[in-house]
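Batch queue: ligand-bound targets. Current item pairs a single chain with copper (II) ion. No template structures supplied; prediction is de novo from sequence plus SMILES. Inputs echoed for audit trail.
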Amino acid sequence: MKKLLMTALFLLLQPFAFGAGTDVSVKGMTCSNCEHIVEGKFQSQPEIASAKADYKKGTLHLEFKDGKKLSKEQISTLVSEAGYTAK
Ligand SMILES: [Cu+2]
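Prediction returned. Tokens below.
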């Protein structure tokens, strides 16, 4: 129970601790391999602190490094380059 509370607290505080983030809808991911492909594509970008994809939900959560950001167009291009579609 305590662990659950800590996890909830961590998730709540995460946006403040790690700077700005964004959620993107990604179409075409069908398994955990797809998640890794999309995550790898974004993790290799200098602006990205972390990337977490979820193929079941069709989402990609990005955290940017302090003061850095990618535009919607840049994100969309990177998703396409990985072989998927951002919407
Ligand atoms: Cu896959």
